[in-house]
From TrEMBL:
Any coiled-coil regions, as ranges: none
Keywords assigned: ATP-binding, Coenzyme A biosynthesis, Cytoplasm, Kinase, Nucleotide-binding, Transferase
Protein family per UniProt: Belongs to the CoaE family.
Residues at which ATP binds: G11, S12, G13, K14, S15, T16
CC annotations in GO: cytoplasm
Catalysed reactions listed for this entry: 3'-dephospho-CoA + ATP = ADP + CoA + H(+)
One of the Pfam families matching this protein, by short name: CoaE
Location(s), subcellular: Cytoplasm
Name of the molecule in the record: Dephospho-CoA kinase
Pathway where this protein functions: Cofactor biosynthesis; coenzyme A biosynthesis; CoA from (R)-pantothenate: step 5/5
Amino acid sequence: MLYVGLSGGIGSGKSTVSARLIELGAVVIDADLIARDVVAPDTPGLAAVVERFGPGLLSSDGALDRPALGAVVFADRSARRDLEAIIHPLVRDETARRRAAAPREAIVVHDVPLLVEGDLAADHHLTVIVDTAEHIRAARLGRDRGMTEQEAAARIGAQATDEQRYAVADVLLENNGTHDELLERVETLWRERLSPYNDNLLAGRGAQPGTRAVDGPAAARAVARVRRQLDFAGLGDHIGQLGTTGSDTIEVRLAPAPAVGDSLRRALLAAGFVGAPGATDFTACDPAAPLRLSLRDTAG
């Protein structure tokens, strides 16, 4: 199962990309929808929000008055952190449940606006950023959501910068043109990268070596994924050294080196690398970044 993180600034066209990916066969997990579900009436999430912010944020039918809550937390960083401390664990648990429920052969797309802000990029096999010029996003917010120039600028300014998104992006989907041009880029991405990557994961097959070296930023993102997945597997304390030893090779030195068992193999698979049972050399499944990974004992 390929797990893709999808993000972009407000007004970037991310929803259009998500909708087309569903049409192409992806299972989309929408973080915004989950965030609404976990504070629906009669949920523990809503009860926790009311306890922190008071019953004045409830509408007459007992539902959360989201614009009123937004006005409170947007103006108060401490209040926003408190809300995130309530909502984020609930969203994370529900996201994990929906991902686990998806078919094994699915391409699962995690549509999450705050991917950068939440440091979530390394949780995914691949990160796709919808990249749209700020002035175009601001114009769309005025046209589609009725925001003033000041309101649009404030909303854009409250999110990650373009440079921060570029730093985690494996794929930049440019959306400064027409709707049809964006859809064509999504279809190309699906055909040339997402589907082959998923096929390789399912088959336990590494990607074929490329004709060009993998660039430094792509290798650095892969290293971050490996570290994150080893941490998730409880193996982070074994990492003695982790980094690139050449343009196409990641070396993981473990101290002490655990046996290359199922937990280690699953962690590396979650980072996009496959290897034969008992092997210490692994290959990336991403056809656009065919890296190699070697496990070594720090004593070696």
